[in-house]
Amino acid sequence: MITDKPKLVNFFFGWWPERWRYIWSLLLAISSGFLAYYIGLPLPWMLGPLIGCGFFAAIGKGVIIGKKTETSL
Questions:
Q1: What is the DSSP string of 19-65?
Q2: pLDDT in tens, 3-50
Q3: Whole-structure pTM over 0.85, yes or no?
Q4: Do 31 and 44 touch, CB atoms closer than 8 A?
Q5: What residues contact 21, with CB distance under 8 A and at least 6 apart?
Q6: Which helix (H) or strand (E) element contains residue 3?
Q7: Which residues lie below 8 Å from residue 47, measured CB to CB, with a gap of 6+?
């Protein structure tokens, strides 16, 4: 049984900040893609998220990129 309150709170709610940052990055990439499409950039599905997430990463905001998973061959 966990009796220490910070450990209990961290056990149940410790994953939320990381999950919200991932969701924020995904929404940023999607909205950047739509913005690039409406501006008329070539390859908007690639350049929009690249520019949007790159800008926020450069100014120090928490942008998370999905991790590559290992696959068995």
A1: HHHHHHHHHHHHHHHHHHHHHT-SSHHHHHHHHHHHHHHHTT----P
A2: 556 666 666 666 566 677 888 888 999 999 999 999 999 999 999 999
A3: no
A4: no
A5: 62, 63, 64
A6: none
A7: 36, 41
